[in-house]
Amino acid sequence: MLRELRCEKLIEKRLRFDAGLNVLTGPDDGANSIGKSSVLMLLDFAFAGDDFIKICYDVIENVGAITIEMDFVFGDVKYSFSRSTNDPKIITDLNDGSEKSINEYREFLRDVYLFPELGASFRGAVSPFLRIWGKDNYNPNKPLNSFPSEPYSSIKSTLLKLFSLCGSLSSLTKEKVEIENKKKSLSVAFKEGYIKSITKSQKKKTEARLSDIELEISKIKLSLENFSINASQIINDENIKIKSYKDSLVSDLFYLKSRLKRIDINLTYGDAVNKKNFEKLMEYFPNVHIDKLVKIDQFHSGVAKILKAELREEKSLLEEQIENLELEIALAEEKLLQAAKVIGRPSGLIDRMLELFSEEKDLSEQIRFREISSNIDDRVGEISSKIAEDSIKSLGVIESKLNSGMSKYINKFYDDNPVSPKIKLYESRYDFSHNEDSGTGKAYANMIALDMSFLEETYLPVLIHDLVVFSNIEDHAIENIFEEYASINKQIFIAIDKVNRFKEKTQRLVRSKEFLSLGSDKLAFGTSWKNKT
User: Cα separation of 233 and 483, whole Å?
Assistant: First the structure.
């Protein structure tokens, strides 16, 4: 537990705490702006929170950087640390001078408070229940929220972990993530074009095409057998590579021949056209201007003469490239025939066999990956259903325990059979109902009953309830609440003022549990800045 907090900027440099209830008292006149919430925020800072920097920035502005030292005692072992607002991400171990990151410090707190292996993170567990002015986590209608906009998915996860009901869900969720990662990898392969993605209807067409290929391959095998050629001699990885290389050469050859043909056309028709040829057009287009056509043609012919030398040079280069390509294709074909040991045999059948085999391989891969993708989708659906089923069951267990606990505590806070609040936990949201008694004070008492239920039913180690939590609750209910606080062995820190309004018994209890008393003449940080301009 947190045993002591030291801070040179506080009016009292050393604050000592005990198990159970620890009280910070304010004056009987209820004066505000004396630093009660700021001191509680220092406790949150000691428990690895970050909100002090943001919420109490005015304190830092007016009194300077704040360093706290804190002692935790577990059994006979004391752990001492310091943390400063100058560098809140680093925590110094006062025993050996070593440093921890804020995450390492949170892990330390998780360990010493004996959180289970699959339990919540330390801050995830305690944040909703450190209800201090400025943190906006004390809405009695949304008591599970660490902050107003916290998503329910995060709240639900913390709930399941706090009640140690996430074991099976954790393994299912892990499996779902692994499978979804495989699906992402497949999607990347489809997107980058390594594998062609096909739809359900395309799969049927692909399967039909595969049947046709298999039939044609069978026919070719029969033809090859007539030449004493074994199909296995042809169908192997090396021959497929040679065939692929040959196909690329043929594609290049086609491109070069197309360019050569265009150059030949330019060289052939680059001369001026005889005027008589244009006159023949008049038989079909009587209104054509022959003289204009002749002038345009003469212009183009002039340009063509200038370019002819370059065209002839390019033609020569293309013819040389074509000749080299044809030689490479012939060599590739000969190499293919030699590899298949079918020299002098029907090369067309061999080419077709390899084409079909390559296509068959591609289509088979498409179908295989389509089936893998479908299986992944089916498995993700199955796991999601199982997660939802287990989650609903676990939430029902939590709901029952919390409702039972709240009923017990509300009946301790109030006499005459008070209306108990109810919490309902769904897959996508939660509802906290105050039932027929929706008064403000009762709503906050309901929230306290919920917190006490968590403290009793889970490994939650600490509560902080600021004055704002008690402000609207009836005095007699507060007195009963304090008695319940004092009966708990886990640490509870509260701030309260106007103590003299309570019964003598309650006043004695509060004074016996007091760790700091503040007032208009005893400000938390020794000075006031509320009236500064």
Answer: 92
Look-up of token digits 């916290």: 150
CB proximity list for 322: less than 8 A, separation 6 or greater: 253, 256, 257, 260
Q: Report the relative pairing of strands 77-84 and 462-465 from DSSP bridges.
A: unpaired
Is the model's pTM score more than 0.70? Answer: no
pLDDT per residue as tens digits for the range 307-325? 667 777 777 888 888 888 8
Concatenate the DSSP letters of all residues of 123-182 into one string: HHHHGGGEE-TTS----TTSTT-SSTT--HHHHHHHHHHHTT--HHHHHHHHHHHHHHHH
* Rounded-to-integer distance, Cα 9 and Cα 391, Å: 48
Phi, psi dihedral angles at 130 (to 5 degrees): -100, 80
Alpha-carbon span 69 to 46, nearest angstrom: 8
Burial of 231 (0-12, 13-18, 19+ CB in 10 A): middle
Euclidean distance between CA atoms 338 and 158, whole angstroms: 70
Amino acid at 230: N
Dist. CA 52–CA 74, nearest whole Å: 26
pLDDT, residue 230, reads 47
